[in-house]
Amino acid sequence: MLHRLGIVGRLAAGLSLLAFAACGGGGTTPSNTSGGGISTMSVSIMDAPFQSSTGTVSAVNIDIAKVELVGNGGNQTLVTFSPSEQINLLNYQTSPFALGTATFPAGQYQQMRFVLDDSSPNNNSVVINGTTYPLSIPSATGMGFGGNTSTDNGDGPGTAGVKVNIGLRAQAGASYGFLIDFNAAESLVATGNGGWIMKPVLVATPQSLAGSISGSVKNVANTAVDNAEILAEQNGQPVNSGVTDANGNFQINALPTGTYTLVIENSWTNLAGQSETATGADGTAPVTVANPVIVTAGQATTVTLSD
After folding, report:
1. Are 137 and 160 in contact, with CB atoms under 8 Å apart?
2. Spatial distance between the Cα atoms of 185 and 274, rounded to a whole number of angstroms
3. Which of 196, 243, 281, 299 could bridge 266 with an S-S bond, Cβ 3.0-4.6 Å?
4. What's the rounded Cα separation, in Å, for the pair 171 and 102?
5. Which domains does the chain have, with CATH numbers?
6. Tens of pLDDT along 147-200?
7. Spatial contact of 256 and 209, defined as CB atoms under 8 Å apart
């Protein structure tokens, strides 16, 4: 059953989502671990600041019609919006947008699926230098860090489906919360005819494990490096990323608790295929930060980086 929240309630819920422990552990004591029981799920979504060499990005709009879980027993609906809910991801850079709380059958679920309303050209769109560009969403694409995001044909004409891996074994009686980082900076690519395509890159992290890294990047003259990509890596593999703004500031959301190596990319191509170049950098070669960064659940780790 969906509990749809008002804007204030959604923001508050996003800051206090129920706990989760991956692969069988729940934030509350489960009554059993077999089928037939009911679990509870809370979902929130956010994005880091989005910078692009194509201009000033003031909005990345997505129009959500439904959120569901994809599991062994089929799809389970968590949230429905009628009419669909259009949100500007850039409005939720510090506090997540809480989509709602719902009960669902306990069991194994591989993915969380977002059904977007694509029936009108500007439902899903990006605003650059004051001009709104519709975002087309190709189906049957696999994207994301580690290939964890994919798209499908939605629920029929005028819709698009976006799926992100979660690997959840929900136990009866347990409560779960997921923070979704919709990484717009990695998701958008300009076409040759002046249009834009969204190849979504999502990162889904249990709320009880989620922390973040924020900070700034400066060059040897101690001035800001703009539009550099900052990768948070583990064992040489990116987990999530952020992009510096005009002041050199960046933020990387939805990072599971752990230790990360940061890599600064001054000449880079996002996962959707858009080429970008930093401004103010001392060179174009990647810079691996020597000191590892520790992420703690519920906290933002702050760093200052030299390019």
Report:
1. yes
2. 9
3. 281
4. 15
5. 2-208 (no CATH), 210-306 (2.60.40.10)
6. 999 999 999 999 999 999 999 999 999 999 999 999 999 999 999 888 999 999
7. yes
